[in-house]
Design goal:
The protein has 7 helices and no strands. The protein is mainly α. Among the domains are: 54 residues, no CATH class; 64 residues, no CATH class. The longest helix has 11 residues. The two termini are 52 Å apart.
């Protein structure tokens, strides 16, 4: 009835479990791959909310915290919750209206673009404003270096990390922050 099949297990101690992180040198990045499947269409709920009251400041911060903390799952969101939060929801909005064409235009100016020169290094450390994560902004030269590295072509950077030769007619990427 049942047939025993031998189980072959590779007990190679020298096998590297991390070798799957990057393709081997024999991978072919130029080879045409099959495209991914079409995106799954999603239907989001459409809420019709009453208009927001311009100066409705009846709720306190603690009430707001309790209101938001009580939302545990999507079914907990109701029109009454939106009404008490004084929110206005627009539906059927085009993506181009949600995101600006120039995202850098909506960012606040960098500290060195608006402040005069600071005289000493001690004053510079104390006067540098903090980013949203609580750390001070990097110096201008470090910021420019990181921005230049992030603007490199992804394919060129991948080829450098994977130790593949550069594409024909392109030079090798020399980046100091590449982590292999």
């Amino acid at each position: 009835m049942w047939r025993r099949v031998p189980l072959i297990v590779n007990h190679d101690i020298n096998a590297n479990p991390c070798s799957l992180a990057l393709p081997s040198a024999s991978s072919e990045p130029e080879k045409e791959r099959t495209p991914p499947a079409d995106a799954t269409p999603l239907d989001f709920p459409a809420y019709t909310l009453p208009d927001a009251v311009p100066d409705d400041s009846d709720s306190t911060l603690r009430d707001l915290f309790i209101q938001l903390a009580s939302i545990k799952r999507p079914q907990d969101i109701s029109i009454d919750r939106f009404k008490s939060l004084n929110l206005h929801v627009d539906s059927d909005v085009d993506v181009r209206q949600m995101f600006p064409a120039d995202p850098a235009g909506s960012l606040p100016p960098l500290p060195w673009e608006e402040e005069p020169d600071i005289k000493s290094a001690e004053d510079e450390d104390q006067a540098r404003p903090l980013m949203s994560n609580g750390l001070p902004y990097p110096p201008r030269d470090r910021f420019e270096t990181i921005r230049a590295e992030l603007s490199l072509d992804s394919d060129d950077t991948f080829r450098e990390v994977a130790r593949l030769p550069p594409r024909e007619g392109r030079s090798r990427v020399r980046e100091g922050r590449i982590q292999a």
